Amino acid sequence: MTHTLPAPTLVNRYRWRVYRCAGLLALVMLASLLLGAGDTGPWRALSTLLGQGSSEERFVLFQLRWPRTLLGLLVGAALGAAGIVLQATTRNPLAEPGMLGVSAGASLAVVIAVALGASSATVNLGVAVAGALVGCALVLLVSRVGSLGDDPVRLVLAGAAFSSLLAALTSLILLHDQRSADEIRFWVIGALAGRSGDTLLWSLPGVIGGLLLLLPAIRPLASLALGERVAAGLGHHPQLTRLWALVAVAILVGTATAAAGPIGFVGLIVPFMARRLVGPDIRRTLLPALLLGPCVLISADIISRLTVRPYELPIGVITAFIGAPILIAVVRGQRMPRL
């Protein structure tokens, strides 16, 4: 008599997929340590990890590649989680921090702070968070006029227009203040390289704080996906939930922008991958997003190092090449998925 094995439960399938995401992240982080634009190749880097290698190779590995890998881990997790939450809040699969004014608002706030005398290396995290919150709130406020928020494409168009306006204001300030332009040029293009160890120290509490603030809103956001009336019937407050979630998004994106500069499309790519992997429920997609975000960002950073060796491309160029086709695919889909 033959016995058939029971089909794996949904919980086991979910755990297995999360484990796969974690394994992929470990491989990507290892690749980030082994690959680079300099003379320290994979085999030399691997021998250095095993305790050998010269002092120069140890410096490259532990003082240059390791900090930017950790920064990619933090920034990628923040942008991935922010993208998932922003899409759940707006019930719009095209919502992304770079398209809804969040990153542009944070960038403008940082540039204004530098123009007023602050240093870009020690810019106050609160400045970037406040700018992100104001930028996102203004876009959502404008989108509510004429019920634009009910149309995913129109909401993105409104966000893109507003983000362009904020970017133009940022460029205008830099054109009229040469000191600010020189101070912030390395930051405004978005990159993981060239950041000091202090960047990791002050960005870690921002990312952890944003994620902790986000946790109480996960269940209400999952109910909100069923509609405001259903969420209210279950005892939740839709407006308060949205406000709470947007504050958490502002902290996450503001921290990421202050640490690595404005990096677009990560908040679009990661939710798209997470939903394909585990479904649309935010209670299931958040954890994969926290793992896939660093995978996408660190992979883009590796590509940026290897494409034009010995130089590096801006990481935002790589994420745009990956994210733009996904954006087009979602827009041109025969049925726009509602979250």
How would the blueprint of this fold be written?
Blueprint lengths: L9 H25 L7 H8 L5 H36 L11 H14 L9 H20 L7 H25 L1 H11 L8 H18 L3 H7 L3 H6 L4 H23 L5 H13 L3 H26 L7 H17 L8
Helix pairs in contact: 1-3, 1-13, 3-8, 3-11, 3-12, 3-13, 4-5, 4-6, 4-7, 4-11, 5-6, 5-11, 6-7, 8-11, 12-13, 12-14, 13-14
Low-confidence stretches: 334-339
* The CATH H-level homologous superfamily: ABC transporter involved in vitamin B12 uptake, BtuC
- β-strand percent reads under 5%
The name CATH uses for the topology is ABC transporter involved in vitamin B12 uptake, BtuC
User: Which percent bin holds the helix content?
Assistant: over 70%
Q: What is the structural class? A: mainly alpha
How large is the count of helical segments? 14
Q: How big is the Rg?
A: 21 Å
Q: What is the second-level CATH architecture?
A: Orthogonal Bundle
> What is the highest CATH level, the class?
Mainly Alpha
Count of discrete structural domains: 1
Overall average residue pLDDT: 80
Molecular shape: globular
Q: How do the SSEs run, as a string of H and E?
A: HHHHHHHHHHHHHH
Oligomer: single chain
